[in-house]
């Protein structure tokens, strides 16, 4: 069985270039909001509390979508009984690919906050994609190696890891919003509809 992928490089989101993860697409409404943030104070003024609630909702939604995808993939992995080494390796790649897509999605949203790219976005990306055993990718890879013959335990472990990292992302985002020198006149809500094309998720 192939070992876990190494050297996954963190990225900085460029909203004008959707190259890293084609699985995630910005909707028309979201693109308009990105433009509003970049303009000279367009959009409604928001409080830090408004922003915290909006980003908390977005981050929880991302975690829930990743858990739903993991549930689907675990079901497929064990659909015909004990999986082969190739099926296990493909499963790991599918889950890691979905985590990459989620990282791009939430990074693009958080990058709307002034000053977030070098601090908050880097933290969130490391939580999701860092080349260490504490990141979501590291925890998933370890679970696949240890529990690839136990579907219920595998899914439970992956879901706990997703929840743990999701809560960490929420906590770091809340801390950033509480301490960063933000100008509320230049803030707008994060995209409420950063959507994913169902057909462009990783497929088996």
Largest sheet: 2 strands, antiparallel
Radius of gyration based on Cα positions: 18 Å
Mean of residue pLDDT values: 75
Task: Quickly count the domains.
Answer: 1
Series of H and E elements: EHHHHHHE
Strand order of the largest sheet: 1-2
General shape: elongated
Global structural class = mainly alpha
Number of helical segments? Answer: 6
* Poorly predicted ranges: 1-44, 193-201
Topology, number of strands: 2
Beta-strand level of the residues, as a percent range?
under 5%
Relative helix content: 55-70%
Oligomer: single chain
Description:
With 204 residues, this protein is mainly alpha-helical. It has one domain. Helices cover 58% and strands 3% of the residues. It is built from six helices and two strands. The chain has a two-stranded antiparallel sheet with strand order 1-2. It is elongated. The two termini are 17 Å apart. The model is unreliable at 1-44 and 193-201 (pLDDT under 50).
Secondary-structure blueprint:
Elements: E1 24-26, H1 28-38, H2 48-77, H3 85-110, H4 120-129, H5 136-147, H6 151-179, E2 194-196
Helix pairs in contact: 2-3, 2-6, 3-4, 3-5, 4-6, 5-6
Summarize the structure.
With 204 residues, the chain is an all-alpha fold.
List key phrases describing it:
204 residues, mainly alpha, two-stranded antiparallel ribbon, 6 helices, 58% helix, elongated, disordered N terminus
């Amino acid at each position: 069985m192939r070992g876990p992928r190494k050297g996954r490089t963190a990225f900085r989101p460029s909203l004008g270039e959707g190259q890293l993860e084609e699985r995630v697409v910005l909707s028309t409404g979201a693109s308009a909001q990105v433009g509003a943030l970049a303009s000279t104070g367009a959009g409604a003024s928001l409080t830090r509390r408004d922003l915290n609630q909006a980003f908390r909702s977005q981050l929880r939604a991302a975690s829930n979508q990743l858990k739903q995808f993991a549930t689907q993939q675990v079901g497929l992995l064990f659909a015909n009984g004990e999986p082969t080494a190739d099926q296990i390796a493909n499963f790991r790649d599918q889950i890691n690919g979905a985590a990459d897509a989620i990282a791009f999605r939430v990074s693009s949203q958080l990058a709307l906050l002034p000053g977030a790219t070098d601090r908050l976005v880097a933290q969130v990306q490391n939580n999701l994609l860092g080349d260490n055993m504490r990141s979501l990718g590291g925890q998933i890879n370890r679970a696949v190696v240890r529990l690839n013959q136990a579907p219920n335990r595998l899914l439970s472990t992956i879901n706990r890891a997703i929840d743990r990292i999701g809560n960490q992302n929420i906590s770091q985002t809340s801390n950033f919003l509480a301490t960063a020198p933000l100008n509320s006149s230049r803030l707008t809500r994060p995209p409420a509809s950063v959507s994913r094309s169902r057909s462009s998720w990783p497929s088996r």
